[in-house]
Amino acid sequence: VSYYSAIKKIMSLTDFERSIKNPSNRDFKLDRMHYLLQQLGNPQALVPAIHIAGTKGKGSTASMIESILSQSGFTTGLFTSPHLNKFTERI
Q1: Alpha-carbon span 52 to 44, nearest angstrom
Q2: Residue 57 has pLDDT above 90, yes or no
Q3: DSSP class per residue in 14-37
Q4: Which domain holds residue 13?
């Protein structure tokens, strides 16, 4: 399979972000997740990390935060996924 045929195949797959005609109006709360993390001993508190989620602007936001912290003297690491510029960077 060539790179271009693989890209063509990927681009032909369903785009779930654009396919939702009537998004849910349910009120999602984090209470269940907080309870689960508490039951697990709050493992998220062991690693100083910033997790950025969502559909738009994650890369820019992460880069700005990493730059600010780095310039403030913190040791930082920035991991982004699925890809930055090319599909070959995708995990």
Answers
A1: 14
A2: no
A3: --HHHH-SS-------SHHHHHHH
A4: 3-89
Query: What letter would DSSP give residue 40?
Result: T
Single pTM value for the model: 0.49
What average pLDDT does this structure show over 6-23? 79
Q: CA separation (Å) from 69 to 31, 45, 60, 79, 81?
A: 30, 19, 14, 15, 20
**Amino acid found at 87:** F
CB 91 within 8 A of CB 81: yes
Chain CA centroid to CA 66, Å: 15
**Separation between Cα atoms, residue 43 and residue 15, nearest integer Å:** 33
Half-sphere exposure of 36 (CA within 13 A, CB side): 4
